[in-house]
């Protein structure tokens, strides 16, 4: 190879350096980070705002205020509309006064109305502070729920999961007070929910008494 050829080869060398960052990824010094680009866009926006006259700044401020007020108003409206469909339910549960009537099982209830059906309501936070456990023999337990309204109360489903020590339960009655609509309905059970007592069922449905 001639000396002239070597000199030509050197003349076409490129001072390009690359950095391998991971599995086959190659970054060049010419790549601009996204963060720098975002800062540049923000600076351009700030410069544009500063270039506006006072009148246009006031107009822009009014437009932003109107948009924000509209969004807030819409959210408040949606919340008020949703509240109209809600109801405050108070469950009072009376456990019977018979031997081994109480239960340690987890109890759930569902309300059926003429307009809708409630979600499954876990009866696990009684307001009875005199007892460490719910559903003791001859005990009264109260539970509060803020749920969608089901309309006129027609039927109650109540069940337990047969868990814990002595899961069998003698339920006397359940009274449901729908405080917004003023309904108070007592669902009389007077029976066992037990795998070992009565008809060995742990899920029952009780119709509201006819009026």
From TrEMBL:
Keywords from the UniProt entry: Membrane, Transmembrane, Transmembrane helix
One Pfam family from the record: PLAT
Domain PLAT: 87-207
Spans through the membrane: 54-77
Keyword Lyase: no
Name the UniProt record assigns to this protein: PLAT domain-containing protein
SMART domains, sorted: LH2 (SM00308)
Highest taxon of the lineage: Eukaryota
The UniProt record lists the keyword Transmembrane helix: yes
Coiled coil: none
